[in-house]
Amino acid sequence: MHSTRPSFSGMRGRRRVLVAAGLAAALTLTATACESGDDNAADKPAATGSGASGGDKIEIPADIADRLKEHGIDVDDWKDGEWKNWDKDKWLTEAEDFVNPVIEGLWKPERMKSAKDPDKTISAKDASADQGVSDPAPAPVNATREETPYHDNAAPVGKVFFDSPEGSMVCSGTVVKDPRNPGKSNLVWTAGHCVHAGGGGGWYRNIAFVPAYNDLGKSESELANATPQEISPYGQYWADWASTSNEWIQGGSESGGAGAAYDYAVLHVKPESGSKSLEETVGTALDVDFSTPAAADAGTMGAWGYPAAPPYNGLIMHKCVDRPGRLSLSPSLPTMYRIGCTMTGGSSGGGWFRVVDGKTVLVSNTSIGPADNTWLAGPQLGQGAKTLFDNMSKEYGAK
């Protein structure tokens, strides 16, 4: 049974249920309200924002330093700018090569605002492939703004920042529950193309997650005088490990390619400052649904994210809610979900949610869409995605 009034509770406090209005079958995200006398309550936005406090330095872990050395990269040189070297022999590619040492203060508010979207589109010809399996393209659904403050309405949703050879980039992501670390998850779900370039490149660098970015939904002019807490209410979380599918690493491309149906990733993150887990700090997280329901049986799905390509500017959280159809790019690839949505690049990696037995769960993520921005498609999260997720939880969840 699928309810249209999801319930999604955080670790403590009362629940606030907010409706994605304007559609017959509304999907909601909820967050917790702080009612603890503890000044460090889990669901209270960090008072210090995104900056490190007290001059504390985060050291590069020995295992990361060792992996850099294996590729002839000096740790101090990396932090001083060697990370900008995208020469082929310096661009780490394989799954086990991921390194992401914290560079304190790199993601300043202005740098975050200037990050671009990693535009992933497919041509109309590709989108019409194998129409015997694909459903007709859906009618566009106009993206609507999320209610502010985001930490009350969609706390698990945030922005993923990273550096690529083309410059600083931005995607979207979602805080998800870690089954081996209940209540203390440090896991973020996003798209594979937000962490790895696919078959033509390697791992992106300086990957960081900012939940509830621009919490009050301020305009660009208003953000000029915004406090760090308004921009990053829970601070910044750097990825100390990332996993994406081998299919994306080998077959992904700028247009999605053969890796599009496997375009998902999981980040394990740590705070740039502080010691609490991401879930404790944000106050809530979502379960991941790996049941791959048929589109016809999945009910309503909603996609959340921060679209950055025109007519959007990446500063405001948006959402689309629709009933999914099927998209097949090839008979040899798994069918993807597709919904009508006008969100553009930058929303990539943002979670897709549905309701199962009254609970909101993550069922996919934004991967690709057409150049005219009328719909979005996301991968089905089957056994391969579940194995990747379980391995991340097992190997890195408690670190």
Blueprint (SSEs and pairs):
Elements: E1 15-17, E2 30-32, H1 62-70, H2 75-79, H3 109-114, E3 121-122, H4 124-127, E4 144-145, H5 150-153, E5 157-164, E6 167-176, E7 187-190, E8 205-211, H6 220-223, H7 228-231, E9 237-244, H8 246-251, E10 252-253, E11 256-257, E12 265-271, H9 278-282, E13 287-288, E14 301-305, E15 318-322, E16 325-327, E17 336-340, E18 351-356, E19 359-365, E20 369-370, E21 375-378, H10 383-396
Parallel strand pairs: 3-20, 13-19
Antiparallel strand pairs: 1-2, 4-15, 5-6, 5-8, 6-7, 7-12, 8-9, 9-12, 10-11, 14-15, 14-18, 16-17, 17-21, 18-19
Describe the protein's architecture and organization:
By secondary structure, the chain is an alpha+beta fold. The protein has a single domain, classed as Trypsin-like serine proteases (Thrombin, subunit H, Beta Barrel), CATH 2.40.10. 15% of the residues lie in helices and 24% in strands. The strands form 6 sheets. The protein has a 6-stranded mixed sheet with strand order 4-15-14-18-19-13, with no helix packed on it. A 6-stranded antiparallel barrel has the order 5-6-7-12-9-8. It is globular. The chain starts with 14 loop residues before the first strand and ends with a helix. 51% of the residues are buried. This is Secreted protein. Keywords: Signal. It comes from Streptomyces liliifuscus.
Tell me briefly what this model is.
By secondary structure, the protein is α+β, with helices and mostly antiparallel strands. The chain has ten helices and 21 strands. The chain has helices at residues 62-70, 75-79, 109-114, 124-127, 150-153, 220-223, 228-231, 246-251, 278-282, 383-396, and strands at residues 15-17, 30-32, 121-122, 144-145, 157-164, 167-176, 187-190, 205-211, 237-244, 252-253, 256-257, 265-271, 287-288, 301-305, 318-322, 325-327, 336-340, 351-356, 359-365, 369-370, 375-378.
